[in-house]
Automatic annotation (TrEMBL):
Pathway: Lipid metabolism; oxylipin biosynthesis. It is an enzyme of class 1 (oxidoreductase). Pfam families: Lipoxygenase, PLAT. Its EC number is 1.13.11.-. Its cofactor is Fe cation. GO terms for cellular component: chloroplast. It comes from Rhododendron griersonianum. This is Lipoxygenase. SUPFAM superfamilies: Lipase/lipooxygenase domain (PLAT/LH2 domain), Lipoxigenase. Keywords: Chloroplast, Dioxygenase, Fatty acid biosynthesis, Fatty acid metabolism, Iron, Lipid biosynthesis, Lipid metabolism, Metal-binding, Oxidoreductase, Oxylipin biosynthesis, Plastid, Transit peptide. GO terms for molecular function: linoleate 13S-lipoxygenase activity; metal ion binding. Residues 264-289 are annotated as: Disordered.
Length: 908
């Protein structure tokens, strides 16, 4: 604004803004047309400087005295209210409204991008307060706009930061601040943060405008604040973290066990040379009494620490809490029913499973109303019952049953789910037959498989095995090496029986997969031990039931690897270090932080809740999945032996698994060997959209490699993500370097892909496919009997009963169903890919705003193409009689369990 006195406000009702200049007693009036910069898909010019008042610099110099003139600018501060407050919060709110009038208020101060040449410090406005806090304290609207007014010098320059001090007793959620009155137009501060009371956190909170700056380009007035804000977020690595803290730090997984409650609840520390694992967010809790190296447990309902701004917002928390309550009821009531009669521990027939959806658990017993009245449950139960038309105790019918109740029995559906189900990322092209183990033969026995050519030869449409291999017709889901080291320990657990499985598929001329052999392996216990067994498609009634049991064991293996490795490890746990390092090393002003920000939302909170309830000792994962107490050790083994960041991107992963080959002539640079591979074909469209969007950002800020190498914040973020977040693997040669714009594009695309589409593909189909337990049993309780075994007679007498006895018990099944129902649910405040809060002001860079709208439009085109594919009868893995469409990568969704929708982040 030069040295002129300029006041401009969009609060005025006219498009004319009167800007005046005063020199001694003379008054000069200048009329300028207020122009708001419009950004959208129609914008053609990019990088255009903001419109300013139409006054030449010479005129300003001629009429303005050297002495600065004071003038006022106005701020609009948007605070988000809670919908529901407890009594304490209400009392504090009234108290704050009273004390605000006597000076205990919210104080703000503008900070210029420029340094004052006199004191070598950033130029600052006066301290201003929110004028109307007490008057608006009783407003019930979701958002309340408060007004403040700053006094600045005419040579203040542009505001780049604002400090906020909350002298109230109660924290508040500051959504945004807009300052109007500067010549460059409105200045936006997207805050989206909880501002704590100064009695808890005395330091001023710092918020930066939405103008992005690389570290080397930071205006002189903001450099110290930029460094101070990052220093505050890193903390000192000491002490127990308070829930109101905003400190991001690393720690090992030493909080999964509970040794103070007994040796059975002791769990090894994950992270360290003994058991490598990614790092998690540090809470600093005191050690347990019995183990100085184990962190003490924090049981529900006490909240686990994550930095304050990472905690669920109210609508998300309400949705999550209601889902958790529903899950509690689903688990509690079956346990009561099971205790009424010992006969109720198992499903007697498939009709018992069907009744979970059609009748509910207690309708037959006539105990539903009586029990609900006696149980000490919150009043919210009644409300949920009303809102769900009395269906609280019923389970929703899983999508797998929606088109064909018996689809799960068919071999073609078993094959379809390998490439279009909830875990489509394990299948590989079979390159060598028979397959060979990589495990140490001195420990685990011969590496050769029991699979022989004669097992599969009759199922290859007249091909020889070598022909099928050469023509890319054979595929495998191989769980041999990941399960075998744990099988003895798993099978020693009460009610757990498992094999290490391999399943071979043949690609039919129709493009569908047909299972042709299943290998079931147990550890070699002795020279006469039947350690390996091959089951092939049935030829009679007996082999038909054995085949169904073998498929169920494969699904059980698949469920465990899906949950513990592909879902938890590869999208939740390995991403957490990148998120922690981003907050610690990348300023909120950094353009790459602005790019990553929506893809980090809620992940630390959901991971903390997982450590508290899901993956901990005696948690849901241990209770419901075959690996039991060894599940997280299995996850750690996969991290050490199989996980590679450079192969986590979709194209690299498809090539690694042999599901695609490089082909520069193809749109995505590769050719799928199974054309109708829904996860891959849909995923590649989203991958491409993400990559284009990332490339737009990288090209804008990093024109050459020197800019990448010299960005100290960017390099510190990547280095800390690896060296501190993944320390046991930091010396691996496969870590990508970060030296060029292409390197940066690849790294960021992979991270955003994993946080959004990859997680969605692995998560939101869990209840639609797994909610019907026979389709995807999370654990098995019986091995498959062979002639001469004591159980063989029981199997022959009633194979259906034996099959049901092999499945999870009633309590195990209903607990599992309740959990995957909650995990498959979209919250009402979900933010999907192609969307983001404050889409037009998240950055002050008009080119990036325009680029984002282009990205959003590309995602819309992807969605339409997926709809088109799901209606194409030639694509038999997603269209046909009784075939579910593949919508797990369809970008948008309604709230609830929809089996579709790609949120921006790992948020459930």
């Amino acid at each position: 604004m030069g040295s002129g006195l300029i006041e401009r406000s969009t609060f005025l009702g006219s498009s004319k803004v009167h800007t005046f200049y005063q020199k001694t007693n003379q008054l000069f009036w200048v009329n300028s047309v207020s122009q708001k910069r419009r950004v959208g898909l129609r914008r053609k010019a990019v990088g255009v400087k903001p419109v300013v008042a139409a006054i030449s610099e010479n005129l300003v110099r001629a009429v303005v005295p050297e002495k600065a003139v004071k003038y006022k600018v106005r701020g609009v501060v948007t605070v988000r209210n809670k919908n529901k407050e407890d009594l304490t919060e209400t009392l504090f709110k009234h108290f704050d409204a009273f004390t605000d009038k006597i000076g205990r208020n919210v104080v703000l101060e503008l900070v210029s991008t420029e340094i004052d040449p006199k004191n070598k410090a950033p130029k600052k406005s006066n301290q201003a307060v929110l004028k109307d806090w007490s008057e608006k304290s009783n407003l019930k609207t979701e958002r309340v706009n408060y007004i403040t007014e700053f006094t600045v010098d005419s040579n203040f320059g542009n505001p780049g930061a604002i400090t906020v001090t909350n002298k109230h007793q109660k924290e508040f959620f500051l959504e945004s601040i807009t300052i109007e009155g500067f010549a460059s137009g409105p200045v936006h501060f997207p805050c989206n943060s909880w501002v704590q009371s100064s009695k808890d956190h005395p330091a001023k909170r710092i918020f930066f405008s939405n103008q992005p700056y690389l570290p080397s380009e930071t205006p002189s007035g903001l450099r110290a604040l930029r460094e101070q804000e990052l220093k505050d977020l890193r903390g000192d690595g000491q002490g127990v973290r308070k829930l109101s803290d905003r400190v991001y730090d690393f720690d090992v997984y030493n909080d999964l066990g509970n040794p103070d409650r007994g040796i059975d609840l002791t769990r090894p520390t994950l992270g360290g040379q003994k058991i490598p694992y990614p790092r998690r967010c540090r809470t600093g809790r005191l050690p347990t009494d019995t183990d100085m190296h184990a962190e003490s447990r924090l049981e529900k309902p006490l909240p686990m620490y994550v930095p304050r701004d990472e905690q669920f917002e109210e609508s998300k928390m309400n949705s999550f809490s209601n889902g958790r309550l529903k899950g509690t009821l689903h688990n509690l009531l079956p346990s009561i029913k099971a205790n009424i009669s010992a006969d109720n521990h198992n499903f007697k027939g498939f009709s018992d499973i069907d009744s979970l959806y059609s009748e509910g658990l207690f309708l037959k017993l006539g105990l539903e109303d009586d029990l609900l009245k006696k149980l000490p449950l919150p009043k919210v139960v009644g409300k949920i019952q009303q809102s769900s038309q009395g269906d609280l105790l019923k389970y929703n019918t899983p999508k797998i049953l929606s088109k064909d109740r018996f689809a799960w029995l068919r071999d073609d559906e078993f094959g379809r789910q390998a490439i279009a189900g909830v875990n489509p990322v394990t299948i590989e092209r079979l390159e060598v037959f028979p397959p060979v183990s990589k495990l140490d033969p001195q420990i685990y026995g011969p590496q050769e498989s029991a699979l022989k050519e004669e097992h599969i030869l009759g199922h290859l449409n007249g091909m020889t095995v070598q022909q099928a291999l050469d023509e890319n017709k054979l595929y495998i889901v191989d769980y041999h090496d990941i399960y075998l080291p744990f099988i003895d320990r798993i099978n020693a657990l009460d009610g757990r029986k498992s094999y290490a499985t391999r399943t071979v598929f043949f690609l039919s001329p129709l493009g569908t997969l047909k299972p042709v052999a299943i290998e079931l392996s147990l550890p070699l216990a002795g020279p006469t031990s039947r350690s390996k067994r091959v089951v092939t498609p049935p030829v009679d009634a007996t082999t038909s039931w054995i085949w169904q049991l073998a498929k169920a064991h494969v699904c059980s293996n698949d469920a465990g690897v899906h949950q513990l490795v592909n879902h938890w490890l590869r999208t939740h746990a390995t991403m957490e270090p990148f998120i922690l390092a981003a907050h610690r090393q990348l300023s909120a002003m950094h353009p790459i932080f602005k790019l990553l920000d929506p893809h980090m939302r809620y992940t630390l909170e959901i991971n903390g809740l997982a450590r508290q309830s899901l993956i901990c000792a005696d948690g849901v994962i241990e209770a419901c999945f075959t690996p039991g107490r060894y599940g997280m050790e299995m996850s750690a083994a996969a991290y050490k032996d199989f996980w590679r960041f450079d192969l986590e991107g979709l194209p690299a992963d498809l090539i690694r698994r042999g599901m695609a080959v490089p082909d520069p002539s193809q749109p995505h640079g590769l050719k799928l060997l199974i054309k109708d591979y829904p996860y891959a074909s849909d995923g590649l469209m989203i991958w491409s959209a993400i990559k284009n969007w990332v490339q737009t950002n990288v090209t804008r800020y990093y024109p050459d490699s020197a800019q990448v190498c010299n960005d100290k914040e960017l390099q510190a973020w990547y280095a800390e993500s690896i060296n501190v977040g993944h320390p046991e693997l930091r010396h691996e040669a496969w870590w990508p370097t970060l030296a060029t714009p292409d390197d940066l594009t690849s790294i960021l695309t992979t991270i955003i892909w994993l946080a959004s589409a990859q997680h969605a593909a692995l998560n939101f189909g869990q209840y639609p496919y797994g909610g019907y337990v026979p389709n995807r049993p999370p654990l098995m309780r019986r091995l498959i009997p062979e002639e001469g075994d004591p159980e063989y007679k029981i199997f022959m007498a009633d194979p259906q009963k034996y099959f049901l006895l092999s499945l999870p018990s009633l309590l195990q099944a209903t607990k599992y169903m309740a959990v995957v129902d909650a995990l498959s649910t979209h919250a009402p405040d979900e933010e999907y890919i192609g969307e983001r809060n404050h889409s037009s002001i998240w950055t002050g860079d008009a080119e990036m705003v325009e680029g984002f709208f282009g990205f959003s439009a590309e995602i819309g085109r992807v969605e339409k193409e997926i709809e088109k594919r799901n209606s194409d009868p030639t694509l038999r893995n997603r269209c046909g009689a009784g075939v579910l469409p593949y919508e797990l990568l369809a970008p948008s969704s309604e709230p609830g369990v929809t089996c579709r929708g790609v949120p921006n982040s790992v948020s459930i």
